């Protein structure tokens, strides 16, 4: 199938008190489950380093030309699987695993303060919560101004909004790696459905407009 959808999903390496990062464990579980026959899934582990993210993300977007890039991160405060709606440009004061933070404390010097995903996370959240999965999802508009937010903003910027970020709780608080993998699978499948509808809608609108324009040819 030449027209397979390409999806990249990333987790983060361990940092701080997270000796095991549940985000990468969940992404590996997702890789085992897959996203179905029509999706070519590529996963990778992202360093908790601002400069590494700046180097890695443009390469991921350019080399793979994905339809969607989903970043997954751990939040010690999360008790649900949390879909982030937007990424932020400024406020990066917290030091990374290399004890570094950007001098400007921002992501892209001339970028907007906030970039929203083209995916409506409320819809994704509602659909997965109604699907009978035993994992609760919620939506947030603050990804935390650390590597998670920084990575999300960078991908939203590079991918014109075709990105998503999912925060997961630490393992066992309350969900197992299998639970988290299934939740990622369900959420990303719903995201892809929404993107597909968008594509169809855009094509349909263009077609209608085109047709209308040449109406006199057929009369």
TrEMBL record:
Its main location: cytoplasm. It comes from the Eukaryota. InterPro entries: Peptidase_C15, Peptidase_C15-like, Peptidase_C15-like_sf. It is found in: Cytoplasm. GO terms for biological process: proteolysis. GO terms for molecular function: pyroglutamyl-peptidase activity. Pfam families: Peptidase_C15. Keywords: Cytoplasm, Hydrolase, Protease, Thiol protease. GO terms for cellular component: cytosol. Its EC number is 3.4.19.3. It catalyses: Release of an N-terminal pyroglutamyl group from a polypeptide, the second amino acid generally not being Pro. It is an enzyme of class 3 (hydrolase). Monomer. Removes 5-oxoproline from various penultimate amino acid residues except L-proline. This is Pyroglutamyl-peptidase 1. It comes from Etheostoma spectabile (orangethroat darter).
């Amino acid at each position: 199938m030449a027209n397979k959808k390409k999806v990249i999903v990333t987790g983060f390496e361990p940092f701080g008190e997270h000796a095991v990062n549940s985000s990468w464990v969940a992404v590996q579980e997702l890789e085992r489950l897959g996203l179905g026959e029509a999706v070519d899934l590529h996963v990778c582990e992202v360093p908790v380093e601002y400069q590494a993210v700046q180097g890695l993300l443009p390469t991921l977007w350019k080399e793979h030309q994905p339809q969607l890039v989903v970043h997954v991160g751990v939040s010690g405060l999360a008790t649900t699987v949390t879909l982030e709606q937007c990424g932020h440009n400024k406020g990066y004061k917290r030091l990374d695993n290399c004890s570094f933070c950007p001098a400007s404390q921002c992501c892209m010097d001339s970028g907007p303060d906030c970039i929203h995903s083209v995916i409506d996370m409320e819809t994704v959240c509602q659909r997965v919560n109604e699907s009978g999965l035993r994992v609760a999802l919620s939506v947030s508009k603050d990804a935390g101004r650390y590597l998670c937010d920084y990575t999300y903003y960078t991908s939203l910027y590079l991918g014109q909004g075709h990105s998503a970020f999912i925060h997961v709780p630490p393992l066992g608080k309350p969900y197992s790696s299998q639970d988290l993998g299934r939740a990622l699978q369900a959420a990303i499948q719903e995201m892809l459905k929404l993107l597909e509808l968008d594509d169809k809608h855009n094509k349909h609108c263009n077609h209608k407009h085109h047709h209308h324009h040449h109406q006199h040819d057929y009369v």
